[in-house]
Amino acid sequence: MTSLTKKNAKYLWSSNCEEAFQTLKKLLTSAPVLARPDVTKPFDVYCDASGNRLGCVLMQEGRVIAYASPNYPTHDLELAAVVHALMIWRHYLLGNTCHIYTDHKSLKYILTQPELNMRQRRWLELIKDYDLEIHYHPGKANVVADALSRKAHCNFIEARPTVRVLCCEIDENEMPTGQHAELYSLIIEPTIKDLVIAAQKQDKGMAHIREGISDKQKAYFTLDEQGVLWFKNRLVVPKDMELRKKILDEAHTSLFTMHPGSNKMYQDLKQKFWWTRMKREIAKYVSECDRIKADHLKPAGMLQPLAVLAWKWEDVHMDFIVGLPRTQKGYDSIWVIIDRFTKSAHFIPVKTIYHAKTYAELYIARIVSLHGVPLTITSDRGSLFVSRFWEQLQHALGTKLIRSSAYHPQTSGQVERVNQILEDMLRACAMTYSTKCDECLPLAEFAYNNSYQKSLEMAPFEALYGKRCRTPLNWSEPGERVTFGPDLVTQAEAQVKMIHNNLKRAQSRQKSYSDKRRRPLVFEEGDHVYLRVSPMKGVHRFGVKGKLAPRYVGPFKITERCGSVAYRLELPPHLAAVHDVFHVSQLKKCLRIEPDLTYEEHPIKILDRKQRATRRRAINFYKVQWSNHSEEEATWEQEEFLRTKYPGFLPSTSN
């Protein structure tokens, strides 16, 4: 066909030309020339008009999305081509940036042209709905739209009949190397009503009812002209558990229902369907849908108070307050360390860039030098507290490390409460005195340690040193009685005993209050549970985030009971970075376990390749994307493993 376009060439349309022309049309209107649109990227529209024809091409990043070429009167054809493209591709272009390319240069100024006819004004109102720019594109370069605008048209009677086929033979549609295509098919399935009617005819248990309805049953059951059984104008569903489950799935999980509660679901279904114990089955079905519904029950797990200690600064709780405004000295965090017995605390300004060695030096200088080495340290699972350096340091000092269960900060509830108090103090200082947090931190520490604590019935300073610290509101008169010698020891012992008793009473009172808002929950080893997903866990742990994320992940098997209210779970490999012990409040029992939760994975794409050299040989590795997984979850596999386990997946090696 190219030779026919040369000058002085004799125009002879042969059968080879016709075959080439039809093949060319077929290739231009199918993958890989045609591509799917990406609504997150800008579109390009090429349009042209010639004689009484116009043509448009929608493209994106150099790839064709769609063609269009309608008939139109000769006047205003160039602008009509633009308007036509905007109208038929409105669902692509509205709300996106697009560039209009035309070989009619005057259209470039249509948006600023002062005089327009009525038709152009009407079309201009439509054009202003879009975020577009009109560019001049020479006619010689605008080949695609120009070809569409010049295509021949004929009457329908004269046209040769064509057959539109969804898919031809696979061999005739081989894709070039490196190109991919997806084939979709639409299967029309029978409706739920048709399935129920068909099941009625096959159900032997309903045969006697269908053969003859007794006078007593006529008040409830009726047969229509097609022999379909109804119960009070409700379609009777036979005892087919697979069919009933299909109805329940459609009424609960489809996009038209979206997980209603049991009562709402029953009220919806009972309008059209009936079967025995229908309400009970619906309630059981909804109760097994655990991953979506909000939990309206009391938190699980009764309060487990820690044992009251015998002396001061034997058990230390510590945590960090992070995300604070950076001060002039570079501090952006606070290390909070409290004694569980006296409630006294130290607030140490730190930087997030500190290494474990720096924290160890601060710990020795600010805690050990003042109070000695504690017996135990309770903390969460922050990076510092799980570092090898920190563990080795505490092991050398003879301190036992106790860490909270995963995502359960209530284990260190005292330090969490102190964090709240300290944040309120710093906020008040910033608002009232306009001071930086590191400047007012020493006074905040003093104010906290000298304030009354309900559980102690005294201030932490008094519990630690035996008397309240002097302040402008708490002064000592000259000649006040001072205790010396053995009396001082006796008074200190009596005060420690009093603190011990006060803490026991406070714990008992707090447990009674807390348990009123909690419920006992016990699991057994081997049970399967769902794991709660809360915003604090983050996308890096469970791959979900935001308000619309699933409320639970799993189910996971319980392998061990750790204490009274904690359990160890059998987590999959992709959650290996998560600590596997969880508080019972983070768990929810799985009521339904599918018989087989496994599925066969197979490699579908090679994303990358690398070679690792050893002393003896070079080992080839391939980055493989697996079925049911995204490219972000691809893994590096050895060539030997892939060739053995999946023969034919890798390209054959040339000798």
Secondary-structure blueprint of this entry?
Layout: H1 15-28, E1 43-50, E2 53-60, E3 63-68, H2 77-88, H3 90-93, E4 97-102, H4 118-127, E5 131-136, H5 143-149, H6 192-202, H7 207-211, E6 221-223, E7 229-231, E8 234-236, H8 241-252, H9 262-269, E9 273-274, H10 278-287, E10 315-321, E11 333-339, E12 345-350, H11 356-371, E13 376-379, H12 388-397, E14 400-403, H13 413-432, H14 437-449, H15 460-465, H16 485-515, E15 528-532, H17 539-542, E16 552-561, E17 566-570, E18 581-583, E19 587-589, E20 603-613, E21 618-626, E22 635-638, H18 639-645
Parallel strand pairs: 1-4, 4-5, 8-9, 10-13, 13-14
Antiparallel strand pairs: 1-2, 2-3, 6-7, 7-8, 10-11, 11-12, 15-16, 15-19, 16-17, 17-18, 20-21, 21-22
Helix pairs in contact: 2-4, 9-10, 13-14
Written overview of the protein:
There is one protein chain. The chain has helices spanning 15-28, 77-88, 90-93, 118-127, 143-149, 192-202, 207-211, 241-252, 262-269, 278-287, 356-371, 388-397, 413-432, 437-449, 460-465, 485-515, 539-542, 639-645; strands at residues 43-50, 53-60, 63-68, 97-102, 131-136, 221-223, 229-231, 234-236, 273-274, 315-321, 333-339, 345-350, 376-379, 400-403, 528-532, 552-561, 566-570, 581-583, 587-589, 603-613, 618-626, 635-638. Helix 4 links the parallel strand 4 and strand 5 (131-136). Mean pLDDT is 73; it is low at 152-179 and 535-548. By secondary structure, it is of the alpha+beta class. The chain is extended. It contains 18 helices and 22 strands. The protein folds into five domains: 25-173, Nucleotidyltransferase, domain 5 (2-Layer Sandwich), CATH 3.30.420; 192-287, Endonuclease III, domain 1 (Orthogonal Bundle), CATH 1.10.340; 315-471 and 494-498, Ribonuclease H-like superfamily/Ribonuclease H (Nucleotidyltransferase, domain 5); 528-589, no CATH class; 603-645. It has a five-stranded mixed sheet, sandwiched between helices.
